[in-house]
Amino acid sequence: MIDGPPSRWFCDALEGNTLMWTAVDDAERPQWDLVPYESVGPLRFGMSLEDLAAVAVDALRGPQVRVGGVRLIGRVPSQLEEEFVRYAEGRGLEQWCLSESEPQSEELGLLVRVQRAADVLLTRAFFVGDFQDWAYTLHDCVPRAELDFR
Length: 150
Known about the structure:
This protein has 150 residues and is of the alpha+beta class. The chain contains three helices and ten strands.
């Protein structure tokens, strides 16, 4: 884990310390499962924290979240996309991509995003609880800060 304020991370990076860009190995990550619209690992949608409605998982240091055996976090985007499409098609789930070619599934409450890890992009994920009472689409649930995150 990185110690100190973000300004220290930046100074370390200037001095050649690339720790802030290093992704944790999959074996070192907590292993979580997605139960669509119910939970992501131990986090249950609506469990307080202002009625938890969404969860964003960091590509570099977040837990590995699986849906049906498909690893979602810290992957090369093209490899995850190929595996996710096979998973979704095999279950008759509708899936589609945003303008940035990021796959999503409203049936799973899942939006796959990318995050910079030094000179490569790795996958991160954004999950939502049942949004039918307060948003029209999954994309409507995503805060601006998440859409701007890279």
